[in-house]
Amino acid sequence: MADEVKVTVDGMVCSFCAQGIKRAFSEVLSVDTVDINLDQKLVTLVTKKDHQLKDEEITSLIKDSGYEVVKIERNFARGYPNLPANVN
Ligand SMILES: [Cu+2]
Fold first, then answer.
1. CATH number at residue 68
2. In-domain check, residue 36
């Protein structure tokens, strides 16, 4: 199953920030999709099936991009939101 990780990021204020972060996470092997909500300063990551993403990986990637992690929330093995659990 895929994991869903919601990361609140401080300092992400415009679409340029969002694109940079999206690109950085897109290059991570275990990441399937990256969605950014600028209003909520939220980065939603979904891992590939049976892949995991450690908090430390997320934090260092965000820091290397020049931002700060405020909060990391996880939905383990929930699959994709809004889809049946057996869809991957
Ligand atoms: Cu910006």
1. 3.30.70.100
2. yes
pLDDT band at 2 (very low <50, low <70, confident <90, very high): confident
Q: Residue 38: which domain range?
A: 4-75
83 CA to middle of ligand 1, Å? 32
How many A from CA of 11 to the centre of ligand 1?
8
- Is the confidence at residue 70, as pLDDT, over 60? yes
Q: CA of 41: how far to CAs of 1, 20, 69, in Å?
A: 26, 14, 10
User: Number of structural domains, the chain?
Assistant: 1
Distance 40 CA to ligand 1 centre (A): 14
Q: pTM for this structure?
A: 0.83
Tell me the average pLDDT across 22-36. Answer: 96
Q: State the Cα–Cα distance between residues 25 and 29, nearest whole angstrom.
A: 9
Asked, for residue 13, whether it belongs to a domain, the answer is: yes
